[in-house]
Write a structure and sequence with these properties.
Blueprint (H helix, E strand, L loop, with lengths): L1 H8 L62 E3 L3 E3 L5 E4 L7 E9 L8 E9 L3 E3 L10 E8 L16 E3 L2 H17 L5 H14 L3 H8 L10 H14 L2 H18 L2 H17 L3 H17 L3 H15 L2
Parallel strand pairs: 2-8
Antiparallel strand pairs: 1-3, 3-6, 4-5, 4-7, 7-8
Length: 317
């Protein structure tokens, strides 16, 4: 599985910053295949609404950086095929309780307008999603407030932290793809199966479902770098920068431990992307220089040339 992944997808999916743009789709995988360089393969969803408020909001999102804010982790910046199974947020040190609200956004508005549900949670940082029907075309968001009045809406990425229902025909197609993936991975390991399933969810930007599939793998004793890369990609897409950094850093440690220099180079680029989005130019440049050296050692001139362009652009800042 791992060899297959790197062999098919080498060099794809790197996000470009400092004016170089985002690497566009370079291939369209067959429905039954998993695509682990998801940024290069994702099909953008926007069926329900083309307004700024509706639909999936895209682009690098700065969020999840202030540990004193109970920022939402899931559902966040995602489509959902059905109501999520839970709401989870950043547990704030010293906070013993939270008020959790489900907001509905009026069409065409740039702020939430109506509280559909509210509850108080003591001593936890997650809760089951309320038994509320979601309406197609409507936009929703979660707000979490500490007992001291610190709201998740103070998070830099709060505006992007909502979710919307995927159209039934699109969800039906996704289920069909999942069935194909499950059949193709009938004899695969639990990790490979989960990665393949999460890949289907990621391609259709159902990030909450992708997290639901992947996070249980972290309870195992032998987690591959691919799981941490996948989690880092999801956190990056949903604007959870610190969680993304942690996931990629663990992927990097695992790749180095395994002696996988190709994986190490790829993860260094992904880390540089996140640091670039956080305006940490020095750290981003250092990571790109290390990645360039690795790609040179691996005999990958195209990757070296791409990184040299990025390094020159950073040096000019």
């Amino acid at each position: 599985m791992k060899q297959n992944f790197w062999g098919r997808n080498f060099g794809l999916g790197m996000l470009f910053f400092v004016g170089l743009g985002v690497l566009g789709p370079m291939m369209v995988p067959a429905p039954a295949e998993a695509c682990f360089f998801w940024q290069a393969c994702a099909r953008r969803r926007g069926q329900a609404s083309n307004t700024r408020v509706g639909g999936k909001r895209t682009g690098f999102i700065r969020g999840g950086n202030n540990a004193a804010v109970p920022y939402v982790i899931t559902p966040r910046n995602t489509w959902v095929g059905e109501p999520p199974d839970k709401v989870r947020w950043n547990g704030v040190a010293g906070a013993s309780g939270y008020t959790v609200r489900l907001w509905h956004w009026a069409y065409g508005r740039n702020s939430p307008s109506l509280v559909l549900w509210e509850t108080v949670v003591e001593g936890a940082d997650e809760i089951a999603f309320p038994d509320i029907s979601l309406e197609l075309g409507d936009y929703y968001s979660i707000e979490v407030i500490t007992e001291d009045g610190v709201s998740s809406n103070l998070d830099e990425g709060a505006y992007y932290a909502g979710f919307q229902l995927l159209a039934p025909e699109d969800y039906g197609l996704l289920r069909s793809h999942l069935n194909q993936v499950n059949a193709a991975n009938e004899n695969s390991s639990p990790e490979d199966t989960a990665l393949a399933q999460a890949g289907v969810y990621f391609l259709d930007e159902l990030y909450a479902d992708a997290l639901r599939v992947l996070e249980p793998l972290l309870l195992g004793s032998d987690v591959s770098d691919l799981v941490y890369i996948a989690l880092g990609d999801i956190y990056t897409e949903t604007g959870l920068n610190q969680l993304s950094l942690r996931a990629y850093e663990q992927a990097l440690r695992t790749a180095i431990s395994d002696g996988d220099r190709l994986s190490e180079a790829t993860v260094r680029v992904k880390l540089a992307d996140v640091y670039g989005s956080l305006n940490d130019v020095d750290q981003a440049q250092a990571l790109l220089l290390e990645a360039r050296q690795l790609y040179a050692q691996l005999g990958e001139p195209l990757e070296v040339a791409i990184l040299e362009r990025r390094i020159r652009a950073l040096s000019a800042l």
